Each structure stands twice: as C-alpha cells, then as structure tokens.
Amino acid sequence: MRRNDEVTPALLAQARAGSRRAVARLLTLVERSSADAEQVVRALYSATGRAHIVGITGSPGSGKSTVVNELARHLRAGDPDIRPQIGIIAVDPSSPFTGGALLGDRVRMRDLAGDPGIFIRSMASRGRLGGLAAATAAAVKVLDAAGFDLILVETVGAGQAEVDIAATAHTVLVIEAPGMGDDIQSIKAGILEIADVLVVNKADRANKGATVKALQMMLHLNPAGTRVRHHGTMMAVDPVPGSTDGAATGEMPVWETPLLETVATEGRGIPELAVAIERHRGHLRQTGEWQTRETDRSRQEIDQLLQERFMAHLRRAVPAGEREAVIAAVASRALDPYTAVGQLLATARLAADPAAGVEPE
Amino acid sequence: MAERKIRVLIAKPGLDGHDRGAKVIARGLRDAGMEVIYTGLRQTPEMVVEAALQEDVDAIGLSMLSGAHVTLVPAIMALLEAQAMSDIPVFLGGIIPNDDWQGMRDSGVSAIFGPGTPMDEIVAAIKERVLGEA
Lengths: 361, 134
Prior knowledge:
The complex is a heterodimer. Chain A is of the alpha/beta class. Chain A is 41% helix and 13% strand. Chain B has a 5-stranded parallel β-sheet, with helices on both faces. In chain B, helix 2 packs across helix 3 (69-82). Chain A binds chain B through residues 1-3, 20-21, 24-25, 27-28, 31-35, 94-95, 98-104, 106-107, 110, 113-114, 119-122, 124, 126, and chain B through 1-5, 7, 26-27, 29-40, 43-44, 46-47, 50-51, 53-56, 58, 83-84, 87-88, 130-132.
C-alpha cells in the first residue's frame, strides 16, 4: 500500500496551515472510513464555523458546474486583499450496479486550474441518496478548518426531493434550465422550496420565458409574512411592506428569494449572482438566522449520529442468527414486522415502545 | 472499514481533440467499480498534476494520440517528482509508437496500452499496481 493511510497530528496541522496535499489526503481519509472521519472531525471541529457554505443544486445538465466555474472565477478576479479562498466539492453519482463513478465536474471547471486560491475536489455519492455523499459534511469541515472562506458544494443532478444540501449549506442556489416543465412542477413540494437564490441558467434559450414565469408565480404564491425555513419548518415573520432589508422600519427583514437569469457559458448574470449570495450571507448574519441554521444543522447532525450509533449498538446486541430468524418469520407471515421489532429491541434491552423511553443498559 | 475505492484521474494532455478513447477507458474503469475523475481535453502538465494532487488519486491515466507524449509525459513526470507524488502510477494509452515505449518507461510510466488492449487487462494492471493484487 502506497503512502501513509493514517490520520496523524502532523497531517492535521499541515491541513490547518493550508497544505493542499494534506487537505487532499484528509479528504480521502474522511471519505474512506467513518472511523477516520470521526477522528478528523474531532480534531478540527473547533477550527470550523468560519466559512460561508453555499450549496448549488438543480437538475442534471442545468449548468451547475459551469455556474460554479464562472462564479469562482468572478470572485477570484476581485481585489487580491479581500478575494475569498474558495473550496469546491462537486458530487456526482456512483453506479448502483458497480459502485464505480465518473466524476466529470472538473471538465467545466478548467478555467479555475492554476489558481492557488481555489481547491476542487470531486466526490462520488457512494450510494447515498439526497444529492450528497455521506462524507460531504466532514469534507466541508476539512476545507473550513483549512481556511477556505467560501465553500461551494455542488450536489449530484437533483430532481425534486434531493434536499440534503439544505442541511449542509448556509445559502442554497437552485439552478433550473428552460424546459423544466409547467407551472404545476414549480409549485410541487421539494427542491424549489429550499432555494435561497433561484437561477434560470441558459437564459439565452428561446423557451426560457415559460420557466421564468412559472418560477415567478411560485415565488409570488409564497404567503406574505411567512417564510419557509430550512428543514421545512414554517416560521412566521412580520411582513415589511415595501422593504426587503428592513432598514426603513427597523423590523426583522424578510429574505425574498431572488430569481436571477444567467448564461453561465458567457458569464452573463454571474456578477449579479455573486451579489445575491453575498446579500444572503449578510441577511443571515444581520437577522441571527446564521446561528439558527447552525443550530438546525447541529441538531440534524446529532440526530443522525445517534441513529447510526443506535443501529450499531443494536447490531452488536442482537445476535445475527436471531435477527435472521426473526426476518425469516416475518417473510413467512409467522410474525408481523412490529412484533418482530419488539422482540429484537427486547433482546437489545431497549424498550419496544419509543413513548416508554429508552432504558439504560 | 469501508471498501477501498480506487480513484483514477483520466486526462488528455496536449492539443489533439480526439477524446473518444479516453472516454471509453473512463467508462470501462467506472464499470470496474473505480471512481474516475475525468478532466477533459487540452490539459497542460500543470493542470494534470494539480488535479491529481487535489483529487488525491491512486493512479493517473493519460491518453495521447498526437505525438505530444514525447514532450508532455516527461514534463508531467518531472512535476509529479517535484510535488513528491512519484509514487502515483502513471499509465499511458493512445497512439504511442513502439520506438517510444522504452523512453516512456524510462521516464517512469508504469504501463502503456495500445489500441485494442482489452479493458480487463487495463483494469487488472491498475488494480495490481494500486492494491498490490492481481
């Protein structure tokens, strides 16, 4: 086996100091094993929380990679003293049959090569549904701790329900291309709801009008005075008439999802997109919603880890033979699934009824 | 411990625009369960090495049809050396005249696959070199 395959204090220190080689290695390690991911996150977590994490999602072929390319190029063309260091994580799907993957997002990001202020990493989804890979959250933390100011996370081409990115990013861009379907598509629940910024890319296409109109209608149907926050929680907010920044009235400003048109291949609309992203970051900071989202994200992360640990505990506590026997009994209709689960939980000495609480070991 | 995934960079350095071969290889490696980072056409040696570094790949595959291998392969090998990445095996495919094989090997290329090489042979060679298994 070539190279060191371990998380070492030296490797962690090099990554924090910004060594690209060390960052790349840590990303491999967090992707390869959950034990390594745990070790890395434990070591780096206190150094995270600085970066603005922006998710980019949308249908396959809508131009996500090209938008990322142009956006990063635009931001890096600014004042050298204040332009951000940009980390990019681009997720593409793994084959459900072979587990292999073709990660092609770099093809569209070729303009970013050679800029030492940009780091691009391709990631296969490795069977995870929802648009991200299981290791994406840990990978974001590695880039955050390594000092990247802005982290762009491009999801797999997503259709309607791949909304994991909402739990990972501060700001979510949803990119659509003309021809997405009619206005009914636009008011279905799911991916459009998580957009903080909506983008119609390929806006030089003849049929873009219908898509723009459908999305505008969707945005206008959002009831005034309410807004859908991440994770689907509804939060009532006092409407601020005639003001999107609240400065005039001093009331809590409401974020109105902007709808932007871009032609990413030509860079059109990209400066406006950069402004919208920055405005959203300012909004999150100003309203305290940044902290709310961090709390929501932490809650989700803790819940998920608890689920994993409980499942691991159950697998250890219940002999495989017993589990198989119960599964066979359910298959042959000798047991119903609920009674079966009750039996397994009893073996693991956990209460069968969640309402009754979980007994300590 | 999760399954060890082999990550391979497939790049097409130089100026020729014929990338079908590279795509066939990328697809074949994908179907063999590998994660293939495909960079597309017209990569400079610096782009290839920087991508290999950022992606922390286990192997690099270069497809070249134009004769540019004579200058670009040694340049890539030198950049890998400079980054202390010479442990990453480099495979070469495309049109490489027989007279150049020894020179390519001498510059550090692990294996050369000419036209018609069966996919299985390429997959086996990469696995053997990366995982140390046949």
